[in-house]
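thought: fold this chain, then report.
action: predict
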Amino acid sequence: MKKTIQFVLLFLFLNLTSCQNAMKQKKYSWTASICTPKNYPAEIFSGHLIVGNNPESDYVYMPFDDVINSYHLGDNDGSSSGEATGVSPKTLDITWMSFTENKSYSGIFKLDSEKIESLMINGSDRPYWDLETKTVGIFKDQHFVINAGLFPGGMVVLYVFSPSNMTIVGRYQAHEDEKVDWGIAHEIMKDRKGIDKVVGVMTKDLPQEIKDQIKNGTIPFGYWEKLFKKYHLNPVVKAEDKVETIKLNYINGEFESIFLSLNKNVMPIQQRAVPRKLNVVWHDINDRRMESDVYFDEKKAMAIFEKTKPNEVIQFIIEIDRNTKPRETKGITIKLKTATSEIDMTEAIISQETFTKTLPY
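observation:
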C-alpha cells in the first residue's frame, strides 16, 4: 500500500512538473500588424487571427480603419487591438480594399499553426551588452508580431516577426468580393460614387508611375511573385575582419540577424531571397568597432541573381576594406560566387555608409 501511494505521488509530481514546464514554454505572446508593397495602399474592412478551430473561438483583430502604405514590404504597420498569449493562430479571416485596383478582397485561410508556434514557443535569443558587468548577455524575446502582407490581386503573405528575424509562414490567395458594405466603415463609402471618391483621394498623391499603371491597367501582379524566389545563398566573411553581426533584409519582406561572435563564426546554411539591405558590424585595422549599411536597388539586384544557374550554391561574399573610416560611402564590396562564375554586385548598390559603433549590440 505504501509503495502504491508513493507511486501515485510520484506520478502526480511528474505530471505537475510536466504541466509547469509546458506553461513555461508557452509564455510567448503576439499582436497583429499589416503591410503592403510600397505605393499600393490598402485598408482592412474586417480581419481576425482566430486561435481556435471554429468561428466562435477567441481572436485578435487585424488593424482596421487605417490606410496602410508601407515604405518597405514587411514593415509592421497599423495597430492591433489585442494580444494572444501561449497559443498560435489557426485561421486568418480577412477582407480589405486594394485602392490602386478599386477592389475589395476576402479570404478565410487555414494557417500552419504548428510552424508559427515553432518560431515563438522557445522565444528568440538576442545578445545585448550589459553596461554594469561589461559582458554580453542573452535576452530572450518572447513577444512577436504576426504580420499580414496584402498585395494587389488578392495575394496574402503571412510573416512572424521578432526583433532578430522576420519569417514567412504562409502565402494565400483571396477572392474578389463585390459585396463588402464599406458604408459600415465609412459613411461616405455607402455607394459606388462614394467609394470611387475615396479611392481617388487615396491614390491622387501616388507617384506618376503608379498612376499610369492604374490608368492603363498595367499593375504588375506578376512582379511580386518574383520577390519570393529563393536561392542557396550563403553569406561569407573573412575571419580577420572580426565580423560580429550580419543583418540581411530581403526583398520578400523577411530579414535575419546572424550573431557571428556568439556562434564561432558559423553561418547558417539555408535558402534566402535576394537581399535588399546589408548591415554588418566589424573591426577595422585598429580594432575599432565599425558598422556599415549597404542598400541595394531591388530590380538591379534581382537581375544579377537571375544570371545564376538554377539550384546552384551561391556565396554572398562580403569584402571589407578595414581602412574604411567613419562616414565614408565606400569600403564594402559584395560579390556573388558560384562554382562557375563570380559576379560583382557594385552596380546594384544604391548607397553605403560606415559609422563607429561603441557597443557590440
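thought: worth noting. The two ends are 60 Å apart (CA to CA).
final: C-alpha cells above.
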